[in-house]
Amino acid sequence: MRPEDWQDAGTSSWDPTLEPPEEADSTTLQEVLESAQPQTSRHVQAKFASTSVASSLVFSEVSDWALPQQSTSAMKPSRPKPKPQTSSNLVSHQSRRNSNRNRLCFLYPYPISLNSVVNTSVKRMADKILRFAAMHLTIDEYSLRCPDCLLLPSNPVSGKCGHTRCYKCVRNNQLELEWDGTVKRCPCGNVEFDVSQVNVLAKDILEKLLQTEKKIRAYIKQTFESQSLKDSSDMLNISEYYGVSVEHLEEHRLADTSSRIPISPQIRYNYSFELVESTRYLEASCELAKVAVSTNNVLSRKARKVLEQLLSYMTRGKFCDTTKNVICGLLSSQATKSWLKPSDLECVLCFETFTKPITTPCGHTYCQTCIERSVDYNLPCPLCKRSLRGFNLRSMCSINMIDTVLTSIGAVKPDIVPDPNVIPLCVCTVAFPGVSCSLFIFNRRHWLMVRRIIETEPRYFGMIPTEMQPNSCYGTILEVRDCLLLEDGSYILSTIGVSRFKMIEKNVCDGYDTARIEVISDIVTEMSLLPELNVLAEEISTKFTTWLTSMPRNLVTEILSSYGTITTVDSDVDTWSATDGPTWHWWIITILPLSHEVKVLMLSSTSLHKRLIAISRTLSTILQSLEATTEADKRTHQDLIVS
What we know:
There is one protein chain. The chain folds into four domains: 3-138 and 265-338, no CATH class; 342-408, Herpes Virus-1 (2-Layer Sandwich), CATH 3.30.40; 422-520, LON domain-like (Archaeosine Trna-guanine Transglycosylase, Chain: A, domain 4, Roll); 527-640. 42% of the residues lie in helices and 11% in strands. It has helices spanning 29-34, 42-49, 87-101, 120-135, 167-180, 200-209, 214-225, 232-242, 246-250, 265-277, 281-292, 297-315, 321-334, 368-376, 400-408, 447-455, 530-549, 553-563, 573-576, 583-591, 596-604, 608-642, and strands at residues 156-158, 164-166, 357-359, 365-367, 422-428, 436-441, 460-465, 474-485, 491-509, 512-520. Helix 4 (120-135) crosses helix 12, helix 4 (120-135) runs parallel beside helix 13 and helix 11 (281-292) crosses helix 13 (321-334). Residues 1-115 and 228-233 have low confidence and may be disordered. Keywords: Metal-binding, Zinc, Zinc-finger.
């Protein structure tokens, strides 16, 4: 196989006689890098000034990974002998070396001049690599930093605000605040609790994390520990570059500071040029791809442009599956999924990946819903059996570190869009639209349901009678107006009926009942029935007033305090056209001495005319019984007087 036949293998032909150009082109990758060079201290400059730039590299020195592998070594063209250096070449070469020594940067200049124009094939290959990198992410270590020391936490402790900090930082902060007599707060401003146990899950994740990407961590350690920290201005510059607080720079030799520096996109971007100078182009492409899919928008655009030109150089402007596959293999081997599985982030109570992870004071992590149900029943920690009495879950936020790790491995559960036809269900009694209903929720299985109802808008849930009664599939949607939490965890709810429904399907969610419902409404009242409805309304108003005045005053007061004041009985056209009819007739049905079966039957009826007739007949029966009772009392009274 000849060198000119390599185009069929995905790369262009290779000219063994090609030498490095004397001068860089006007549009080179080096100019792109110079625009991204950060300003650093003179000590950093001195460290890198002694590093020689591989400006004498030729195209033949590309890593063998990027070139097609031949079956025998005889098929490879021999490397050309270097030409003798002339005096002019030596002067030009020495001047370029001196100019590179005086460069202030952590970035290494690119060793070969490249044309900045990238063809479509290379861009298409870069797009595929970046799409693969987006599906095989690495952890954003900056989001795992301790808010105090800005390093990866050592002996991590999670607070109420969801931030994870070093045990030492928390303790030092608390000692300072106790000395000043101020409230203990996290750097984010939220009030923190006393020093608790180390977060077991977070510590395990960090230990695994520090065992990954050892090459770049060794690069960070080498560059960080070689800096001189005598000048305060240098300390400030270096702390900004590495993202470490100045206080921890002073004691970095006494602790493991350098090993806990988080890998930022900027550090990864600079490390890629260290790899380029070492002719490790495929590894550099892998690091650039990680930066290109990071959240740093400015740096990601630069990394993408550098990646495209590096790919163009390695593949001679052609789409090469071999190069793409090798880079994707490197990305896959370094992704978070390669060392952390979803099974490592499962709740021991529900055996599923964490949803809103909460850490208890004993340092164990559970789903918020799972630990809430456990605390409702006054159960201890499921793992260590430590008492959780007094642990206020309502003040706890989801642990940011675990949420970040779940995102990096793609194990975050998508938010479930609530179905408006599925509502929480309470099986208790009969409620009616527009009528107040007070509830005492003492059953622990309903406490989680009440908390979720209060946190959502609108605060609706369904009420149906006990399932032993006929037509128990009909109920009323209630809206929570007020809620009172008692010391033992039970609730007193003040609700009002909104509308009627028919239960289509019943399920169980997190221990409480839910139902898929269908809202029901009255059939449209015909205009010919309006006069009759007006007559029925007048009769009901008269009969009800008579019955109400015959009741004892204390009984009337109790009824009004339980169900509210009755609305005025009116006969407007708008009243008859309401979906559930006028509110006053439901109020009367509520206090009528009827069985639950009859009330549920009236609730399920879609005919306003039939309900009014039933109310009128019931009131007539009540008044007749009152008259009969009155006549009997009079006769008894007369008999007693005569005797």
